[in-house]
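Subject: Interface between my chains keeps coming out wrong

I've been trying for a while to get a sensible model of this assembly. When I model each chain on its own everything looks fine, but I need the whole thing in one frame so I can look at the contacts. Pasting all components below, labels as-is. Any help appreciated, I'm running out of ideas.
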Amino acid sequence: MDRRNFIKVCGAGAAAIAAGVHTQLVYAGTVKDFPKVKLVDADGKPLKASSLSKEEAYVFGYPFVGTPAFLIALPSAAPAGAALKTESGEEYSFPGGVGGNKNIVAYLAVCTHQLAHPEKKGSVIAYTAGNSETAGRAAAITCCSHNSAFDPADGGRVITGKAPQPLPGIRLEHDAASDEIYATGMYGADMLEDFFKKFKGNLNKEFGIGKYREAPAGTVQAVLLSKYSADADRC
Amino acid sequence: MNENLDRRNFLKMGGAVLAAGTAGCATGVTGSAVAGSGSTSAAISTVDYIKLPKAKGPRLVVVGAGTSGMTIAAHAKKNYPNFDVVVVDKRDMYASCFNSSLWYVGIINLEFLAAHSFLDAATNNGYNFVCATVTGLDRAARKLYTNNGAIDYDFLVLAPGISYDYAKIGVTDPENVYGVSQKYPGGFISPMEHVTLRRKFQEFEGGTFIQTVPSGNYRCLPGPYERACLMAGWIKKNGIKGKVLILDANPEVTIKKQGFHDAFDTLYKGILEWKPTSAVTAVDHEKKIIKTEFEQYSFDDASIYPNIRASTMIEQLGLVDPTSLQKEANIDVRFYNIKGDPHVYVTGDARNHPYSKSANTSNTEGQFVAKVLAARAQGKEIAWESPETVCYSMTNAFPPEAIKVDAKYTYDAAKDAITGFSPDTKTWETRDQAMGRAYLEWAQGIYRDTFGG
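Reply #2:
Try treating it as a single job with all components included. I did that and got this:
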């Protein structure tokens, strides 16, 4: 990964709360800034926080074209503050949801166990609104491949399974005036290089040679998982 | 003499030279000496060392590049970068045993199973791969012997897998053992068996295909039932006038019984017949007859899965638990080291545990053993963790639909034994296409974990 894109933020806060703009706060050392992009729908129109389909995962390529992320409007607010730890021991805090209801969160849609992720042909990782047998509860992100589950309302914390660390978070920014949503960076585990290494062949095939490493410019389309993948499996 | 072979690895037997291990601990060192001048005999030396890069930290040698060994090799260095890891396997080409039955009916192709290089695994995970066959072990000197020379180790992991035990199904005469194993392979050890079994599927034109299921803790409990379902599906799809007969040594389907019985009864009624408590007692491979205690069955083709035991390597190296019915290794139940020897470990399907002998068990167990080794290399100990067995079975091929189990295990400290499945074990026994898809991704995840970086 291009190290110029990394900023280690030690201390209080990755970004400030500017007038009318709420950026997720992250309180310790795992934040990486990436170019700020606006989330838009398949027609290129800005997604509005208050109009998102509730409890349905959207997929968008961030921070790179070939790295799928989930955007989810949870049923209720996801409060900030949960203490989390990466597999290598780095500690960080969940910055909480954004939007008027503080219920909008985003995570890298790559299982931290063995890197399953949504592909066009199908996805074994998905958000399950109702009860998940694997998670033993509702409102969970499940990976049906080896039965890991994550809590999107708690910073992507592992609920069950062999996943060794929380899902990395995508830092969001919500403009209260326009109700638009932006992605501005990541926090949590740094697993993009590992992901690229293991999927380079597939990613070249799916996105074009080397295109998967390109950053989205200005805007990024977020589409429902049900439209992104031919089949999205829940368990 | 083969001029392509490294001459350092040869001994000219002008004198009596033979690899000798340290008294008391060396076992199984091979080699043959023919004394006397003018001898026309030569033998490969096990005295010289394999020329490896100088170790920069404690050397971990892993024997066996299956799921267990590959997982440990990949994760040991991640957990403790100072490790100098060397993987030894007699094969130079990998093809996975798990998922192989899916190839027989075209759900996956050969690339899915075999396009995984030991070279890439070594490069991606920072270790060295040696293609060699183990010939002996000197635990006092911490030295492993191979047909290409010796390797010193600080830690040794043996993950050699299983061997078939044909005697347990009454097949003892070597002529019969070779006849049965070559014509009607069990299909749970080597890639060549799968090539043969796939051909049998593709060429089956009718009659009775027998799939046997052994007793004991055999490799891949659902595997023979899954294969029978796939064959029955193949017969059904192609309108072949034939049937599958499962001769099961066990009184009940050994795992996911509801899901399998449902497939037997609803998908394959009249095509698949399951006979419980039908342990094979004899096979006549010429006449194509299998005998059980009370019956005798003729077949047109078959996959005869005999009982299994730990790889004969474990016995040859003197590491068998004397109480093990399957000649498995005499290891600490939680930390896998040979009892009394913290430098030698046995993992994977040669372990002496009631764990399912399956890929995901070996993968999750291997991740734990890698942590144990990393801790011990630094003079520490860690707490026991259960392996996890997430295991799919494709009960329908057209379209692919699977069932699943997710099991962990319970350790009883008072007995110092694994006593069974943990209470949170779950099964998903209503077959569906979602699990069929997840089954394929399940395998890809294990390939990524073992061969990827």
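Reply #3:
Confirming on my end. Chain A has one domain: 3-228.
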